[in-house]
């Protein structure tokens, strides 16, 4: 295995003190140009790479931003990470990505690990199991800037960027009502999480405003919001004595699972049942019929998080700020 080149290796090669090498590699004015050039030449020759984690310990911070998300496979989170990484790179930061796998204990463990990295800051969306955000106080106690997005712990005061999930669900239900639908179901998950709770509230409010009664039988809460969960929920709904004529699912994947089941049963979409999802990932236009969605404004979400985190890192803002971003309905064939 190739050995990592250290500052002491360079110092030994040049027969000078390692503190002089360290200062030169930090472009300190206390090192003469001749010595500085000599050290950089030897460092390049030996293939020296700076230990960014060690630098973080010395400086009590680093140029590394952490991103902690529940699920890397989910379109919203993978796209967010891609966009955020680009912004960070353009501003001289690197990014470390962590996945909680929607597990509270893993999330706590990761937070404890991240403290030791002396991060410049952390962007986080909590797991679906998280009901207590106390572990994030460890970051605040160490003055590590923290911004939450999408899924937010409500017992922690911190900057956050969220989508208006209430309005998204409200608009989706109103769309189906305008199409003549009267028995509209909601397929959701983890209603204690702000995202899914707000969508449930928007769904109920749209029914009430249109003088339609909320029917408990039309609200299906699944363990998750994957395609299989959508398929299974659709099966439950179609076994009811009075079946729905519209279905709102809290994710694209769940909505596509609904479409898969309805097509198996030879149920026409949207003539018999309209289907609407959330997110607007690439599979929405790959399924048949193409899926109408409440689109998540991921770029705006990313920009908002980056701005709030930079404000904290650079010390230009000491107060917490909440930004709410509006989604939009993308009309396709499923309605």
UniProtKB/TrEMBL annotation:
Domain HTH lacI-type: residue ranges: 5-59
Pfam families named in the record: LacI, Peripla_BP_3
Origin superkingdom: Bacteria
Protein name, entry field: LacI family transcriptional regulator
GO function terms (MF aspect): DNA-binding transcription factor activity; transcription cis-regulatory region binding
Keywords: DNA-binding, Transcription, Transcription regulation
